[in-house]
């Protein structure tokens, strides 16, 4: 377990997964074992969304890639690169064509192994400062590699009256519950406020959109995404790709408590 500390802020990271973030003694992250979801955060890469109706295949310029829901990155293990009292860096590296064991097989998938026809390196860093917690993702791959990116953190809720505010509207928790597994899209948005115990401000850089998901009233996933996958059929999921177009493709999420 990696722990980061600054004043009244405490971050807990378990093999690259954010399992705790507290400020002034209040825990903001959904705890494993609580109703709702078996994880507390993960990444969706190089695709977002389900692929079962497309025979678990996604089209790329190098041909079809075998991908299960939300991609193969989550099936890989992070390696700790460096750590200080306020910052930790983790990394995953993938070699083109390497088969990755699919944890959904055989109960939820027909594909025992997943693969991707490109090399890539995926770096995830956590850093706490006076302004809160910054989680940064850096993608390095061959020029033109297609990808989508989504970050999937789960936040602990203490009130069924919790809501989500954007510059345009307020979304009640019931609205998210009613949408179900497809998740509720919040498009063209870079900042969201979770209203529960005080306010939790979630700002993003590079993503452009969010989707909101939960099936229980004690937890809410507020997910920055580059593409909302339910606007197209699974066979056209590739229409949401963007290319690697610079040496380092950087995306950030900033979590700021306002108790």
From TrEMBL:
It holds the Pfam family Aldose_epim. Its cofactor is Ca(2+). Keywords: Calcium. It comes from the Bacteria. InterPro entries: Aldose_1/G6P_1-epimerase, Gal_mutarotase_sf_dom, GH-type_carb-bd. Monomer. This is Aldose 1-epimerase.
